[in-house]
Amino acid sequence: MSFLPTFFNKSVQLQRYKLLTRLTTYSGSVYALAISNDGNLLACGGTEGIKIWDIKSRKELTSSSHHHESRGTVSCAIWSTTRKTAAETLCYGTGLGYIIFLRHSLTNKTFQEICARRLGSGFEITCLSWHLTSSEGNLRIAVGTRDKIVQVLTLNASSQLQSVFAVRLENTVPKSVAFADNRDVYVFGLYDGNFMKLKDEDGSVVQEMSCKSVIGHAAVHSKRGVFVVDNAADGFTLYRLDGDGEPVRTFATAVPSMSLPKQVAFGEEGKVVVGGSDNGLVYVFDRKTGQTLETLHHADTDSGLTRDLHGRCTIASALTAPGRGKTTIKIWAYDYAVQKAPSAPKAPSENYWSLSRILMMLTQLLALLCMSVFLLINYKDSFLDSAVNRVHGYMTSATIVNVADEFSQHVKAAMKFGEFGEYVDIEDDNEGPTEGSIKHDIRMLRELAAKLMEIAQEAGGDIDEDEGKHDTDHPQAAKGDEWTKSLTIVS
To answer: Residue 141 is inside which H or E element, if any?
Structure first.
């Protein structure tokens, strides 16, 4: 039976991510999933165009974009924001080379198409990424297409697209693109497994290395200086951005049954790697150790993506191959920030003294007061008798004499030694100012001890006269002397 605690602990550890909701959509293939920057919206794109949901209410939101037959299958999608408006902007690309922008209206909760353009010769848009520039809040977009072209565009405040640069790569079909912190562009090649860095001004290559595998998808974490790719073979491989192409580690999954790109992403502030599969599982790996922390069960073939927001990591997964009937999208979440133990007690918040808290404290105080009154009314005589017995136990003649005698012994000891442990002779009249003060205090203590002994002797006689009466009324008083002596010895 000793294996049971281990089994249950492991089960608890593997259930960090909780299923939030299921969304059911149209029949067909799903090739793109995107969670908004505020974590409230989900975009799903595929053969039937683009659809947008409110995650909390599970309601599909209205969109003005209904041209998927003429524009082609949705191949990729991202969410972005600008500095001038808090509204979310959805950008997605299609198989016929269209790039479309939808902006969320905060008034009527709908999405309006603000820009649509067909790029170049109309080849499939394979990847998108965005970066917020510092000039007037323009949106900076990196786009990769099937004809080996990478270009950077800006969407200005008037919703017009302007080109920054466009370059054609020699042998690399871009499968993923990402912005560096300095606005340079990372490019990941689909077939040749090349990783390169393009200068933000003109697209010239400033860094290049080979990942030695096909790249189905890739994700970059600039803060930790790493990137991870879907190696289309046995899982996902981690590399360093400034490395020489040697893998840091591989996150192994089951061998895929078919060669399909699988989305991969970082989560929990870069501490985990999340990737899809074609065996019905979404894997959550520890980035440092490569250990599988958790597997989330979907069905059939999955693609997975993540979004980190305010200590919550959200994962979405869906079918990427033609399904039977309607497609199901599953969304999980894990509040990893809540699991961190606080280093110090938190100070009360500004809402600490709320009305509900004040009422609760007053109720507790009233209950305590009622209990005190009840005890006082019903058990007053018992309390008084107990107090009298205890006081009488102290006030015996033997006790007073013992206390006075002990105090007298302490005074005699103090007469011999001064404040700093030196020997003092009180009969000596040739003392300095300090010694005279010490001797004067000792004389006072000696007189006080003598007076206390005299009072004790007088009081002892009066107490002894009534001792028989009190012993009859209060049997516990007879034990007073013995109990007090023990206290005197301890002290």
So the answer is: strand 139-145
Q: Which of 308, 312, 273 shows the shortest CA–CA distance to 289? A: 273
Which residues have CB under 8 Å from 128's CB, separation 6+?
A: 76, 77, 78, 91, 92, 93, 99, 141, 142, 143, 144, 177
Q: What is the pTM of this model?
A: 0.65
What are 265's strand-pairing partners?
274
Both structure tokens of 92: 């997605």
Contact predicate 129/141, CB 8 Å: yes
What's the Cα-to-Cα distance from 61 to each of 40, 56, 223, 300, 327, rounded to whole Å?
Answer: 12, 12, 34, 27, 17
CA distances from 354 to 358, 365, 366 (A): 6, 17, 18
Residue-wise pLDDT tens digits, 41-74:
999 988 888 999 999 999 988 877 677 788 999 9
Residues 6+ apart with CB under 8 A from 373: none
Sequence-ordered strand ranges (E) for 248-372: 249-252, 264-267, 272-275, 281-286, 292-297, 303-309, 312-318, 327-335
Q: What is the pLDDT of residues 224-236, one digit of tens each?
A: 999 999 998 889 9
Task: Inform me whether the pLDDT recorded for 451 exceeds 60.
Answer: yes
Burial class (CB in 10 A: 0-12, 13-18, 19+), 401: middle
Beta carbons within 10 angstroms of residue 345's beta carbon: 6
